[in-house]
Write a structure and sequence with these properties.
Largest sheet: 8 strands, mixed
Number of helices: 3
Structural class: mainly beta
Strand content: over 45%
Helix content: under 10%
Domain Secretion system C-terminal sorting: 412-478
Protein name: T9SS type A sorting domain-containing protein
Radius of gyration: 27 Å
Pfam families: GEVED, Por_Secre_tail
Domain GEVED: 308-394
InterPro entries: GEVED (IPR045474), Secre_tail (IPR026444)
């Protein structure tokens, strides 16, 4: 009887253990359990994920889902008791604010979730603005931009850092220290003559296309407040005849293989070129279709990581890094470029893509950290160690038509104030997108002339006409 009771208790306990629900807990770098984290530290230090109740001795997947439903994937291994200790982080130091869900899923689909709120740095209290927020290269050379800061301590000592489109940063180095006024305000005119660098070596600010970041720090005693803003330099005239220059300050780390559509190139792992013009290498792609990109590349060292990024000028405005044109393909760690490491990603040709020859740029860039990685967002300027290769995509519609002139589709006047006439020879749908690909307007039309009346702020937009067999996009300028 006693033995039977022991057996029953043993079976009950075993069933209890087996039925134990999976759970995960989140900790910061100080091993303190957390439910929120500052956006910078979510990238730089990440989050430790501890779990229990999972399949023993197996690999599981850790997934971060951000508020926009974007996902990042990691892995962890459970021990003989079904416990694990893993680590996750955000992709960049500017994480998406809000509630992120971290999920753990094992091979038997046992799942546990935990939420963490990504918050703005409480010290980021300065109001930093710049005018204009977008400026052509020649306008910057002639008139520059104006920086304004409020919320400083009265007569506070300031430090200002300027971040290039390529990600490198330099400090503003004036002849004398910078101070706020008695009201805690500060202003500075920034142009090509503004000295930046270090005390022993300064230079002016070069005119480089892309997004420039400015960070301002209050250096009052016991103070750590700061703020930031950005502005973009754009080319004077939109053109696909030429593209911005890109270079290296360090050593060449070759992109040893590029496979995308009909593109299949190989480069020696000891190639010494910073830039390779492969624009004569062409692949055909179709609007709405997806294609797999596979890349191999050399890392800086056996212990270091390099990231690979693709830039594609879908809207033919001569800029390679508009929103929706930058693709983080993946990273290689300690790769020789001829080993079995590669990165892979699918790229879908967007609906706003303009038909015809389209520039694609591939960048291999050294990342100082193999965990909190550097992911380029700018296609221009000077990078450290790596390599750049340019290619050509021939974009067409689903019918294979890549020549806009073959499609009867006209917009007049262009530029306009939002009132325009679109003329087509067939029925279809007209849509207007911003340059990031966000749909702003849609209208079904018959053949002939159609009046379009939209209220849009000044800028460049993309007007797409799509029939049953054709799709073509034209740029329009709203004044």
């Amino acid at each position: 009887m006693k033995n039977n009771l022991l057996i029953i208790l043993f079976l009950f306990f075993g069933l209890f253990v087996k039925a134990q629900s999976p759970e995960i807990r989140l900790y910061d770098y100080n091993a303190v359990e957390i439910s929120s984290i500052i956006e910078y530290w979510f990238w730089a230090a990440g989050v430790t994920v501890e779990g229990s109740g999972f399949e023993a001795n197996s690999e599981l997947e850790l997934i971060i889902t951000d508020p926009n439903d974007g996902k990042r994937y990691f892995t962890a291994i459970t021990d003989e008791n079904g416990n694990f200790n893993g680590w996750v982080n955000s992709k960049t130091n500017l994480s998406i604010l809000g509630i992120h869900t971290i999920s753990a899923i094992d091979a038997k689909a046992n799942t546990a979730d935990a939420e963490i709120e990504v918050i703005k740095d409480p010290a980021e209290t300065l109001n930093v603005t710049i005018s204009p927020a977008e400026i052509t290269l020649s306008e910057f050379e002639q008139s520059g931009v104006d920086l304004t800061v409020t919320g400083l301590n009265p007569e506070a000592l300031l430090k200002i850092n300027i971040g290039y489109p390529s990600g490198k940063g330099k400090e503003v180095m004036p002849a004398s220290d910078l101070y706020a006024d008695v009201k805690g305000s500060f202003s500075l005119h920034i142009d090509p003559t503004t000295p930046i660098g270090a005390s022993f070596a300064t230079s002016g600010i070069p005119s480089i296309e892309g997004v420039w970041n400015i960070s301002v720090f209050d250096y009052s005693e016991g103070e750590d407040s700061w703020g930031r803003c950005e502005f973009r330099m754009v080319r004077d005239i939109e053109s696909i005849d030429s593209y911005c220059e890109v270079s290296l300050s360090g050593v060449a780390l070759p992109i040893t293989s590029v496979n995308f559509g009909q593109i299949s190139t190989n480069t020696s792992s000891d190639d010494a070129n910073a830039y390779i013009d492969n624009t004569s290498v062409i692949t055909n792609v179709t609007i709405g279709e997806s294609y797999t990109m596979r890349l191999s590349a050399v890392s800086y060292a056996s212990y270091s990581a390099n990231t690979l990024t693709a830039f594609i000028d879908w809207n033919h405005n001569g800029t390679l890094d508009d929103e929706g044109e930058v693709y983080s393909i993946g990273s290689v760690l300690g790769s020789t470029g001829i080993d079995d490491q590669y990165v892979i990603a699918d790229i879908t040709v967007p609906e706003i893509a303009v038909s015809g020859s389209t520039r694609m740029r591939i960048l291999n860039a050294y990342s100082p950290s193999s965990t909190s990685m550097f992911w380029p967002t700018g296609a221009c300027g000077e990078y450290g160690d790596g390599q750049i290769q340019d290619f050509t995509l021939n974009v067409s519609t689903s019918t294979g038509i890549g020549d806009v002139s073959k499609i009867s589709f006209d917009v007049s006047p262009n530029p306009n104030n939002g009132n325009m006439i679109v003329e087509t020879q067939t029925m279809g749908v007209i849509k207007i997108f911003d340059i990031s690909g966000n749909a702003l307007y849609s209208k079904d039309v018959n053949s002939g002339k159609t009046d379009i009346n939209v209220f849009l702020k000044s800028g460049i937009y993309l007007l797409n006409f799509k029939s049953k067999t054709q799709s073509v996009t034209k740029r329009i300028l709203i004044k």
